[in-house]
Write a structure and sequence with these properties.
alpha/beta, Glucose Oxidase, domain 1, 9-stranded mixed β-sheet, two-stranded antiparallel ribbon, 11 helices
Length: about 300
């Protein structure tokens, strides 16, 4: 078998002397949690092709959804081609303008929302009928509060990354993570796009749209529709009568939308940074994995 002994005296790369890169991505593999649609879902699979003991190399193939882990949603995920200025903003993942995928921006601290959720959840012992309206839909006021807290400002063409604290539930309690995360609705999306003119948006949430904005919820997430009615006495079909408005508006306007942020996000929360999330160049993809990273402005 081919073998190459390690001589550490010849290693010259040392990251301690390089710019710190914050990795705000979650790893993905066989047990990566998936969006909880009704019915069977196929896990991510990595069948082995070649292995070191025989072929002197290791290879595997991948089968599974591209909407898992930290990923970008392309416009063709939720929009018809006629709804998009394809030449300007792209349509498939491969067509996204790379200039949109990197820029200055802010990582906002909304981790108190996770603490408030846990307090309500524990007080109700996880019983939806005793929770009241435990779901939080983010508003412009949430963003303004977070900006003020860390003396930040939201500039035109900024990237915005939201730390809700819910990444703590990733792979730990996927029920809480996917069904109760604080997310956005039409009001927030319109404000970010039409008033603030952002370039990209990411968050520690299961989807860009809040859980209840998956109309008709009784078909898309029936258990959640039941829990919402038990907790509030309301019908989600009446209070949230649209399907993924944020997805569609961001895609139409060219805003790069990243879901399932996490990783080292706590280390860079409350800062202005350079933020980057590059898509891989797959012509067929309506979304795909990305490495959401950030570093101090002007450090290179």
């Amino acid at each position: 078998m081919a073998y190459m002994p390690l001589d550490k005296s010849k290693l010259y790369l040392d990251k301690k002397n390089m710019t710190k890169i914050y990795d705000m991505s979650n790893p993905w593999g066989m047990d990566t949690p998936l969006w909880p649609f009704p019915g069977p879902r196929a896990d991510l699979a990595f069948p082995r092709g070649q292995y070191l003991g025989r072929f002197h190399k290791r290879t595997c193939t991948f089968t599974g959804t591209l909407h898992a882990g930290t990923h970008i949603d392309a416009p063709n995920h939720t929009l018809h081609e006629e709804e998009v200025d394809r030449e300007r903003n792209g349509y498939t993942l491969a067509e996204l303008p790379l200039e949109y995928c990197i820029g200055t921006g802010v990582v906002l601290d909304m981790r108190y929302l996770k603490d408030e959720f846990e307090a309500k959840w524990n007080a109700a012992n996880g019983d939806p009928s005793k929770m009241g309206n435990i779901w939080v839909e983010l508003t412009p006021e949430h963003f303004e509060k977070a900006l003020k807290k860390d003396n930040l400002e939201l500039r035109e063409f900024d990237w915005v990354v939201v730390n809700t604290g819910f990444q703590d539930f990733w792979r730990v309690n996927n029920d809480k993570y996917y069904n109760y995360y604080p997310g956005m609705g039409p009001e927030c999306a319109k404000w970010l796009v039409h008033e603030k003119h952002i370039k990209g948006i990411a968050g520690t949430w299961g989807a860009s749209d809040a859980p209840l904005w998956h109309h008709p919820l009784k078909e898309q997430m029936p258990w959640l529709a039941t829990a919402y009615t038990q907790a509030t006495g309301l019908d989600a079909a009446v209070t949230h009568p649209d399907y993924e408005y944020c997805h569609r508006l961001f895609g139409q306007q060219g805003v790069i939308a990243v879901e399932n942020a996490g990783g080292e996000i706590d280390e860079c929360t409350g800062k202005r940074l350079t933020i980057c999330a590059m898509p891989f160049r797959c012509e067929m993809a309506d979304g795909g994995f990305t490495r959401l990273i950030a570093w101090e402005e002007g450090s290179f």
